[in-house]
């Protein structure tokens, strides 16, 4: 396995939940980390935690669904922090409900955040990654993107679209030594999943934790550069 010490990573939605666990796990490996989100206070708190691990850390406040903001803020980040070796497209939102009843604006916001977000961010990061001649992009989809459900039309559409974009990008970019991976985790304990976990009667000790997901990502990044894990689903062993 290769060391990832000294690399630079951008983790969208890195202020809490899965993104925060990923940012901390990367920092533990000696990776400098930039995190993004919409809430400045949460980002600041997480950056303080990351810096305690002895690496450089910074944050940028923007909405991944806003094309103009993404372009401007990522350009500023790259100019101040340097080109990114690693991009984790993690920021996302979820809302569940009947297709007929869900508000059109809400449906659109989910797709814009979960599908257009990673598209805008990847477009902004890629030119400098291509210049580096290597890199890793990990797109966080969901098992909901593999299979629809009665109440998940917007979320499943956004995450299925992300799988399609991510797989296509993998085939395009492997020729440039850039590895693109698509992850489809099942339910992991976080702010996003707290309502789902309330109505399932599983044992809370058996629920996947953000750290389990972060461990998988670190191991993927440490794979020899000739090896690419194109996709993986992370499930609870015995929920
Ligand atoms: N938890 C699960 O069970 C589960 C399972 C499968 C896949 N996933 C996926 O994993 C990813 C992380 O989920 P999570 O459970 O960690 O969710 P979370 O706890 O709600 O955290 C979401 C993160 O994304 C940021 N974010 C949300 N919307 C954004 C926007 N429009 N622009 C910029 N940042 C935004 C949030 O910060 P701000 O609110 O400050 O913007 C926060 O940092 C998501 O893509 C989710 O779909 C989660």
UniProtKB/TrEMBL annotation:
Keywords: Oxidoreductase. Transmembrane segments: none annotated. It comes from the Bacteria. Residues 7-191 form the Ketoreductase domain. The keyword Zinc does not apply. The keyword Protein biosynthesis does not apply. GO terms for molecular function: oxidoreductase activity. SUPFAM superfamilies: NAD(P)-binding Rossmann-fold domains. GO terms for biological process: monocarboxylic acid metabolic process. Belongs to the short-chain dehydrogenases/reductases (SDR) family. This is 3-ketoacyl-ACP reductase. The lineage of its organism: Bacteria, Pseudomonadati, Bacteroidota, Flavobacteriia, Flavobacteriales. The gene is fabG.
């Amino acid at each position: 396995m290769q060391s990832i010490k000294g690399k630079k990573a951008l983790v969208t939605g890195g202020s809490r939940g899965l993104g925060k666990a990923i940012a901390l796990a990367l920092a533990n490996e000696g990776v400098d980390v930039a995190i993004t989100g919409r809430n400045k206070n949460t980002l600041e708190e997480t950056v303080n935690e990351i810096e305690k691990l002895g690496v450089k850390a910074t944050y940028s406040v923007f909405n991944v669904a806003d094309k103009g903001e993404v372009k401007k803020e990522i350009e500023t980040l790259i100019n101040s922090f340097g080109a990114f070796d690693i991009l984790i497209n993690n920021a996302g939102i979820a809302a569940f409900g009947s297709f007929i009843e869900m508000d059109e604006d809400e449906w659109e916001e989910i797709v814009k955040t979960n599908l257009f977000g990673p598209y805008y961010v990847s477009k902004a990061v890629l030119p400098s990654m291509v210049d580096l001649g290597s890199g890793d992009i990990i797109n966080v989809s969901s098992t909901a993107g593999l299979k629809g459900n009665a109440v998940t039309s917007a979320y499943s559409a956004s995450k299925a679209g992300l799988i399609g974009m991510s797989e296509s990008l993998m085939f395009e970019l492997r020729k440039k030594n850039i590895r693109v991976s698509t992850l489809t985790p099942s339910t992991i304990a976080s702010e996003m999943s707290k309502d789902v976990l309330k109505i399932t009667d599983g044992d809370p000790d058996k629920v996947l934790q953000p750290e389990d997901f972060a461990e998988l990502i670190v191991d993927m990044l440490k794979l020899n550069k000739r090896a690419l894990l194109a996709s993986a689903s992370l499930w609870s062993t015995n929920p």
